[in-house]
């Protein structure tokens, strides 16, 4: 990952937290720029395995999608406030909730595909941010161990482990709509 110098951000924040307006000034350098409560998170471009898994899951979710739902792959902004903007690898929301530019409310489902550079953020900071937003279902896919971990938001506002499946095991989701996911199938040709 490239190093961002202090000069690159001169004048952007002047001692204050970042806002979504500041993201527009970020360089178009292949990195993913996200905000959680005004804190900037910079991630390198994802690798082939990551993109394959995210793409295959997008296809599975899109094929099962009933009317009124939208499936979107990154980069697309979930922007519930001026201090938070996240770009999940895959998300599902209600058609009527989207604007041309972003999704200003909590998605129904967020999926993050782990990579060495994003695992800490995905499993901790982003997970907590999605819970605060009210994202009902949070899925994490590890493309190396070929595992899908499914969390559901409880009435207390915390994620509870619903399922963990690996390889050729089947996960039958009820939320946000019925869909069947087999982790190994998400590897596409890489599973051969």
UniProtKB/TrEMBL annotation:
Keyword Hydrolase among UniProt keywords: yes
InterPro entries linked to this entry: Nuclease_put_TT1808 (IPR012296), Restrct_endonuc-II-like (IPR011335), Uma2 (IPR008538)
Ranges of residues in domain Putative restriction endonuclease: 22-173
PANTHER family from the UniProt entry: SLL0198 PROTEIN-RELATED, SLL1222 PROTEIN
One of the record's GO molecular function terms: endonuclease activity
Keyword Nuclease: yes
Domain of life (superkingdom): Bacteria
Protein name per UniProt: Uma2 family endonuclease
Annotated keywords: Endonuclease, Hydrolase, Nuclease
């Amino acid at each position: 990952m490239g190093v961002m110098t202090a000069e690159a951000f001169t004048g952007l924040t002047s001692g204050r937290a970042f806002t979504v307006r500041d993201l527009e000034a970020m360089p178009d350098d292949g990195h993913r720029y996200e905000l959680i409560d005004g804190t900037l998170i910079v991630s390198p471009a994802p690798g082939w395995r990551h993109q394959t898994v995210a793409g295959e899951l997008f296809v599975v979710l899109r094929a099962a999608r009933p009317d009124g739902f939208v499936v979107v792959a990154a980069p697309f902004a979930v922007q519930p406030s001026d201090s938070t903007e996240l770009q999940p690898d895959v998300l599902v929301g209600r058609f009527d909730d989207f604007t041309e530019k972003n999704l200003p409310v909590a998605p129904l489902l967020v999926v993050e595909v782990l990579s060495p550079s994003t695992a800490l953020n995905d499993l901790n900071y982003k997970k907590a941010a999605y819970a605060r937003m009210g994202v009902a279902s949070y899925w994490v896919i590890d493309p190396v161990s070929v595992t899908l971990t499914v969390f559901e938001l409880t009435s207390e506002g915390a994620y509870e482990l619903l399922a963990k499946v690996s390889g050729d095991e089947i996960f039958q989701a009820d939320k946000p709509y019925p869909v069947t996911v087999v982790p190994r199938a998400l590897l596409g040709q890489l599973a051969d």
